[in-house]
Amino acid sequence: MKLKTIITAALLMVCGTIAMAQSAAVKGVSKSVFTLTAYDAEGSEQGRCHGLFIDNKGSGVTRWSVLQGAARATVTDATGKSYEVQSITGSSSIYDMVLIQVDGQTQGATLSRNKEADGSKVWVVGDAKSGTAGTTVTRSEVFMDRYNYYVLGTAVSAEMVACPVVNDKGQVLGLIEEGVGGRNSRATDVCFARDLSVDGIAVNDPQYADMDIPLTLPKDREQALLAMMLTSEHGNAAKYAKIARQFTQRFPNVTEGYSAQAYYLLQQKDYDGAANMMQQAIAKVNKKDEAHFEYAKMIYQFLVYKAENPYPAWSMDLAMSEAKKANEIYPLPMYKHLQAQIKYAQQQYQEAYDDFIGLTKTPMLNPELYYEAAQCKVQMKANDDEVLQLMDKAVETCKRPLGGESAVYFLARGEQLQHMGEYRKAVADYNVYDTLVAGRGTHDFYYKRARAEEQAHMYKQALNDYAHAIVITGDPLYMAEMAALQLKLNMGEDALRTAELIVARQPEYDEGYLLRGMAKIVLKRKAEGIADLQKAQELGNDQAPKLIETYK
What we know:
By secondary structure, this protein is an alpha+beta fold. It is built from 24 helices and twelve strands. It has helices at 2-21, 24-28, 64-67, 190-194, 206-209, 221-232, 237-250, 255-267, 271-284, 288-305, 316-329, 333-345, 349-359, 367-379, 384-397, 407-419, 423-436, 443-455, 459-473, 476-488, 492-505, 510-522, 526-538, 544-551, and strands spanning 33-39, 45-53, 59-62, 72-76, 82-92, 97-102, 121-125, 132-143, 147-152, 164-166, 172-176, 186-189. The protein has a six-stranded antiparallel β-barrel. The protein has a six-stranded antiparallel barrel with strand order 7-8-9-12-11-10. The protein is elongated, with a radius of gyration of 35 Å.
């Protein structure tokens, strides 16, 4: 018993000596240690670990595996203050490290510039709860020519994972990585994490796709714009709003960040907020014309596409005023173009037409101008040939070789030709459109082309397009058109199968019974056919009584 007591006392003395050996600089590193907590989309905690602030501007290093896929995350510093993780500056799944950014002033640790010699005494510094543990460098290696990887002389507890390893001067060597099988601990150079970065296209990296935490925008404006644009295409509005706020903070004199935030506020139906954001842009940005133009465009698009949710402060007159201010500051064709579009929306069709045609004589020349001029002619009740001439010009102006952006103009000309009874020419344009959209047209398109093909006596093609439209939506209207054409072509069995499908899917649809009845009559099943016609009559079909009288 006495021997045990002596041994215990001796161990306590050793521990006390180790504790006393810690320099003030070593102890001070604990002020830079934080705890990260990551949450999933439902708000449940998905992981927790330590990390380290590396400067006084909110930059921190922690474990990537804990943060990856999180909807949000917070860090709590040594004083108990919590910060939201604003963005991710870079990550490495290989070394399980991530560089994060929080909004606030933080106490950053000093990073070592030199490799620590093997056998050196080092310290693993945790927070107030996990404390500090002394150990030695057993072995060190260099990776990527300039970063250090350390193997330590002991294994530390799981609570110390992602805590810093420091030398006697309190300079940080690395972060403790997660241990496996009780092996001695390892530490990866924090300078490696400090140097992590992303470019504009990094937002498309799959490892960030399922996160609501955005990336830190690159310092280069063009790369930052690219990142913001690509984020908008991902459909995560909240994430896009965060990255737009970042952009405005980094580039406060540039319009794009303000307009991106304003569009997000519009989605949230915060109309006052959107208007105020654009007023901030007008007040703060260097290129005032761009801010006035973006505001005018926003108002115009809102009034055209969101008319069901009016905002009294916005009108086409205000949109025109802003567009004119943009053009007065720095005249550009696109500013005049927006004014022409606003005039069209105000039903000033002749003035809008004159503007669109005038713009075709500027470097802005493009097929859209002729298309919009054609729409003005339609509204002015011009003859079909005038409209078609403008549609022809739109198609002629499309860049060659043709790309997907040209599809809409072939579609529009095809619709005009179909309206004029030029069915085969219309089908030719529809075929070009279908090619340009790689066969991914809407059900409306395939129905439209089928109608033109039927009128052009291109029956096989029409049946194929009706079938295509049916596959996309299963709309009984398309089935009815197909069955009617099958009856016209004396394809009784096919018409019956189509009509059976209509009745099965829409048992209260009168056309289904009418067509099934006619198919049965064609197939010499007269009594059954008349019964179906009578059912169609019961459901309110106007054609059924006369057909019953005819075939009775």
